[in-house]
Amino acid sequence: MSSFLPDILALFFLASLIIRRLGVDLSFQPATYQLLTYILLLTIGLKGGLALTSEFTLGLIGNSLIVVLLGVVLTLVAMLVIKFFSPLNQADRVTLAAHYGSVSVGTFAVAISFLQLKNISYEAELNLYVALLELPSILVGLWWLNRKKSHTSLKTIFGHQSLVLLLIGLVIGALYGDIAQPMIKQLQPLFAVMLALYLIHMGAIAGGKFGQFGNNALFLISFAIFMPILAAMIGLGTSLLLGLSVGGATLLMTLAASASYIAVPAVFEQAQPQANVAQALVASLAITFSFNVIWGIPLYHHLANVAI
């Protein structure tokens, strides 16, 4: 049943979007939405920190730096593609690029199920890479939007509540390791419910702004399909550099090809309220997520099998 969970979550988003277009608004009050994002981001951070502790080796440090650099490169490549092929303003351009520089935990879960059905093993460090790839695009995006301000500082970049919560969870999970595991186990069932509620809220927001796409609709659809394939190729090159197995390469390609629908929209909706986060969320979840689950993951596995 768990292998079908991402599809179920996507349906919460799509159902709320459609219902909003029919005139029923299921979005939550700001305080409720803030609580949802706090729980989601703290859980993601704790899980990433736990993975960092349980899988730590000296060689992992260098590999982790390469993976962080991958997140930066994916974000910058997405920015360039968007800049040259769309009329989006800077805030929307950077917000969309940040979504595609980050990763989708749901897509990662589907890819793991795909490998398990084929009895293909993969490196345990991939669980850590999921957490590591959440942050670079957020940091690059916030820095890019604030770089021309006269008083830009570390506080400007790191001083957003959602990002701070993600970092706090990561640090505490890493410091306490197995001690934090019972808390993570207790949060896990709650995480799925909170994520479903969060996606209902974001689906309502997206449905309310769906008509704002205008002339950008064709670009967004094209980008949401083209960018995953381009990112997967960059992920394949990184996999060869890291010496990953076919299973590990498939997962890293899938991560590179996926787009965030939790951490990035949660941070950017608070940090950049003028940006159209709903537009990026529709592209990342409604289009890219569906593409990856139906066609992308088998394609990435085939390419990894050929290259390795």
Automatic annotation (TrEMBL):
The record, for InterPro entries, names: Sbt_1
Recorded protein name is: Sodium-dependent bicarbonate transport family permease
Keywords for the protein's UniProt record, in alphabetical order:
Membrane, Transmembrane, Transmembrane helix
Q: Where are the transmembrane segments?
A: 33-53, 65-85, 97-115, 127-145, 157-177, 189-211, 217-242, 249-268, 280-300
